[in-house]
Amino acid sequence: MTEAKPKRNRRRLLKAGAGGLLLPLALAARQAPAQGGAKPFAGVTLNVSCWSATYPKLLADYLPEFTERTGIKVNYDTPGFPVYNQRADLELSTKGSAFDVLNVTFIYTSRWIGAGWFTPLDDYIKDANKTPASWDFNDILPGSLAPMRDKAGRLYGISWLTDALIAGAGRFDLFKSAGLGMPDTFGEMESSLKAVHNKDNVPGFLTENHWGWTFIPYLQGYGGNVFRGPPDDLMPTLDTPEVAEAAEFFARIVVGYGPEGAAGYTYDQAVEALRAGRANYSTNNQVFLALMGADGSKVRNTVNFGQCPRGPKGRFPGIASHGWGIPVGAKNKDASWEFIKWSMSKDLLVRMADKHGLGSVTRRSIIESPAYKAKMVINGVDVGQLFLETLKFSAQGHMAYRTVHVYPQVNAQITQAVGRVVSGQMKAKESFALAQRNAIADLKRAGVKL
Amino acid sequence: MSGAAPPAAARNLEEERRRALFLGLLPALVVLSAITIVPAVFLVVTSLTPLNLTMPQTAWDFSAPLVNYLELLEDPRFHNSLLVQAKLSAGTVVLQLLVGLGVALLLDADTRIRRLARSGFLIPMVLPPIVVGIIWKVIFTVDVSPFHRFMAWTGMPVGSILTNPDLALLALVLVEAWEWFPFTMLVVLAALQTIPASPVEAARIDGASAWQMFRYVTLPYIRATLVVAGLFRLIDSIKAFPLIFVLTDGGPGDVTEVTNYYAYRQAFTFSLWGYGSAIATLLVAGIFLLSWLIDRLTGRMHGEAA
Known about the structure:
By secondary structure, chain A is α+β, with helices and mostly antiparallel strands. Chain A is 46% helix and 12% strand. Chain B has two domains: 8-47; 67-305, MetI-like fold, CATH 1.10.3720. The interface between A and B is large, with 38 and 36 residues.
């Protein structure tokens, strides 16, 4: 925390013994900026929390700058993803005032926004006194803001991250040696992996075992879906032939071309294995896979990227947004908005991108700037452009399944169902029929009318 | 005069004494109630509601108080979690008792090396469970594990254990036993110190073998200690959570999803606090039952010893 300068001035003046005459002047000098509006929130303390990702972690280093500028102190923490979500879910449900700014987690957007646990931000954005035009709200990618809106179109979060599922091959040299490019279809993917698997002792495929995220592009690529008609018709559709076919394909890829124990890799383990060249091809989040081209990666000179492959029914890359929001119970909402404005200002994001290589931004002006583009060209591949192209698929509406308030239940069922298939406990059809039954029971328990 | 009522002054004194004792105990009782009984009552009350965090009004919905318990009767995942719990508890308690007893017998002598070994064997028990989980996560992760590399080097490669549905639970049993066998070792060592020298010496003079010495002299003396240690470990095994969280997340599929992990999922992942509380209430009831059993057994054994 930084201490406001006027306080130090006052202390020095007191020490100098000029008390009697100068003290009132010094106090007046301290109060003047606040009364004049320069630091209207001086002395306010905000409690801010977000899950641990690159951007929120980098932001911690810049907080003294915010305090210096506004006089607002910030208690800030970035726990792990599941811990953050549980803590935030519990706190938000009480409509308490423990937090002033929280991350609106993608998979909880419907639950948290639908339950009225966040404050609408539209009035802040429209009010020129609170948000100058130079902040340029319209610069933020509309696609990234879409999940932060309710059915009436009111906005509850300012997205700091939009992540898209892409494909990456750390040892693309092995693909090239086999005369292959980046696979474009599921069929090409399987035949390519067959050709490169265990070449140079590198297993062909690896992704994280959060199957409720990494399996869905395959499920949808075969024509399946999670719910019958999300977000309104939430009848699970996990027992369809399309889902079984997708699960069989996915299990063949994970087990047949993965390293030993591939089903046990969490995202951090998978990323490290890919960066170390202990696995070759993956489909996962752009922010994770881009790390194959970052400092310390053993595959930065051989890596290549491409679109997530398409299945018989099309290409359905996962797209997710996370944004800053103000809990409805927050006591200092105006100060909270100051924090959000500052943390999402162009100036700050540009500096983060320049100095720390922040690769996940939601402002179009930054993504399209030459400096950013140059940074996002990894081993000759324009990953920034790939990201923008991937975002266009969101127009298909295929991510609607993920923003319903009971997705966590179905997510757990899908993760367990794929786990049973890849570990050989059950056939795909049997496992997903069980997942369907369990999901229906879980949704009914959560009060969903099916 | 025997049988006569005590004089009024003595009765008053006794009442005063009781009142003073009660008043002295009162602060402790209040604190104890606040930290144990009130949360337990709240848990039971919550289990009688369909409390869902996304619908706060359900916190006071007592229209169908037994609905969670009735659903549990028909919930195959809950039944499976009980079975997994039984397997985990049985496996880990038996292994802890055998290893703890074996190591205690080996270390039952006052030499410098054995004293050092005793301290060394205590290390797993004093490590935070999450640290234990991380240590074993590394050991079980094929591509970074020294164990897997060694086995591969010997020409006997071992596949992934944690993602193998036949081995994942066994792996948890081994890790849990590794972490907690020192508890059994400690209590058995303490019990071994209490065995009088004369029966041991008599058996030795009679030419008893090492096995006969153990079977007919040592074991009767430490039997009560072993039973109590086993029951304590049984209660603790029901609370297994951090290792499962770090190592398997209940998987693959649901082969390592024990009952309290299932309760955690329902409450913290799905926000179904009413249902999660019902599972937790049944767990607490089970633990109370075991505690009562311990009390009865220890009471009976002390009676026998007397």
